[in-house]
Specification:
Function: Catalyzes the 2-thiolation of uridine at the wobble position (U34) of tRNA, leading to the formation of s(2)U34.
Shape: globular
Radius of gyration: 22 Å
InterPro entries: MnmA-like, MnmA-like_C, MnmA-like_central, MnmA-like_central_sf, Rossmann-like_a/b/a_fold
Strand content: 25-35%
Mean pLDDT: 91
Structural class: alpha+beta
CATH topology of the largest domain: Rossmann fold
Low-confidence stretches: 358-369
Main location: cytoplasm
Number of domains: 3
Oligomer: single chain
Order of helices and strands: EHEHEHHEEEHEHHEEEEEEEEEEE
CATH class of the largest domain: Alpha Beta
Subcellular location: Cytoplasm
Distance between the termini: 51 Å
Helix content: 10-25%
GO molecular function: ATP binding; tRNA binding; tRNA-uridine 2-sulfurtransferase activity
CATH architecture of the largest domain: 3-Layer(aba) Sandwich
């Protein structure tokens, strides 16, 4: 079977290529350039990554392709990224990149090149049960990336292979060394490529100018000034610039709410203060791996951020949204991020968080507008 691998120049996709080849597939590699460097974004690692991808393909003797998807990435991912920050929310570009670029644009290009399936170096698994494909957690729980893949449906999963889903990361490094792959010692990439090695707020300010405003406690006391509510996220501690205050407890200050309309940033002391917690959230239109919800109302577990431990909850499915009620209060549930639902090892789907319930009194920016 002809398989087109999204080869990134990292160790994971390199070993994915090796495993596909060992399994007897006709493997080709396609390198995706998703960002055009400019003076605003600063340096990105695209050129170095492409050279590494070429070297891996050369080592394995597989054809190499390269495509520039920067325009598609800008329209399908980055423009939305900026719009969300302008609205005071905190988006997750990895989820959107998977849906719009890696499993849409790349999939279409791979099929145009004659591939029967695509593959990536993601840590996740796919199987088929009762005529439907399932997205499963990776064997390596510490590397599992099903959270970022929850928006994939039956069409994408039917055409996708995840060669690394059944092995753990240390073994991936071992396989890379044993095969003398040029990426065997390369560090894993972190963060978002288009930001490069620079301060996130400085990057964002190039596209969304600063708009200073008041920093207040939930009780309304003015205690400082912020540079723009879009630069902060719920639960944030660093970068607030609040020193010691007379009569304060001495505990650290945290962002607990944002009101974009009035340009007010709310902060409170203590990482476990009640303003940061909620029992309920509502979402935008959900995506279901199976193509439909398992039931109008059901229990499952959920994550509201990557690497979070699964949290027990009840889900009510409405026409264009979900209502999720957790058994225990959740800390810093953030609009713009995704809530992802699980039934054991299977990822059911998920949705972008629209708002949280003010279980403990709450603030205006934490409620639906």
């Amino acid at each position: 079977m002809k398989v087109m691998l999204g080869i990134s120049g990292g160790v994971d996709s390199s070993v994915a290529a090796l495993l596909l080849q060992q399994a007897g597939h006709e493997v080709e590699g396609l390198f995706m350039q998703n960002w055009e460097e400019d003076e605003r974004s600063g340096p990105c690692t695209t050129d170095a990554d492409r050279k590494d991808a070429v070297a891996v393909c050369g080592r394995l003797g597989i054809p190499f392709h390269a495509r520039n998807f920067a325009a598609e990435y800008w329209d399908g991912v980055f423009a939305h990224f900026l719009d969300e920050y302008r609205a005071g929310r905190t988006p997750n570009p990895d989820v959107l990149c998977n849906r719009e670029i890696k499993f849409k644009t790349f999939l279409h290009e791979a099929q145009a090149l004659g591939a029967e399936k695509i593959a990536t170096g993601h840590y996740a698994r796919v199987d088929r049960r009762d005529g439907r494909y399932r997205l499963l957690r990776a064997v390596d729980a510490a590397k599992d990336q099903s959270y970022f893949l929850h928006a994939l449906g039956q069409q994408q999963l039917s055409a996708t292979l995840f060669p690394l889903g059944g092995i753990e990361k240390p073994r991936v490094r071992e396989l890379a060394r044993e095969a003398a792959l040029p990426t065997h010692a390369k560090k894993d990439s972190t963060g978002i490529c288009f930001i490069g090695e620079r301060d996130f707020r400085s990057f964002l300010a190039q596209y969304i100018p600063a708009r200073p405003g008041e920093m207040r406690t939930p009780e309304g006391e003015r205690i400082g000034e912020h540079q723009g509510v879009m630069y902060y996220t719920l639960g944030q501690r660093n970068g607030l610039g609040i020193g010691g205050r007379h009569g304060a407890s001495g505990e650290a200050w945290f962002v607990v709410g944002k009101n974009v309309a009035s340009n007010v940033l709310y902060v409170a002391q203590g990482g476990e203060n009640h303003w940061l917690h909620s029992h309920r959230l509502e979402t935008e239109t959900p995506s279901w791996v199976a193509g439909e919800a398992p039931a109008p109302h059901f229990r499952c577990t959920a994550r509201t951020r990557y690497r979070q431990l699964d949290q027990a909850c009840e889900v009510t499915v409405h026409a264009d949204r979900l209502e999720v009620r957790f058994d225990e209060p959740q800390r810093a549930v953030t609009p713009g991020q995704s809530v992802v639902l699980y039934d054991g090892e299977a990822c059911l789907g998920g949705a972008v968080i629209a708002a949280t319930d003010a279980t403990y009194g709450g603030l205006p920016p934490l409620l639906p507008s």
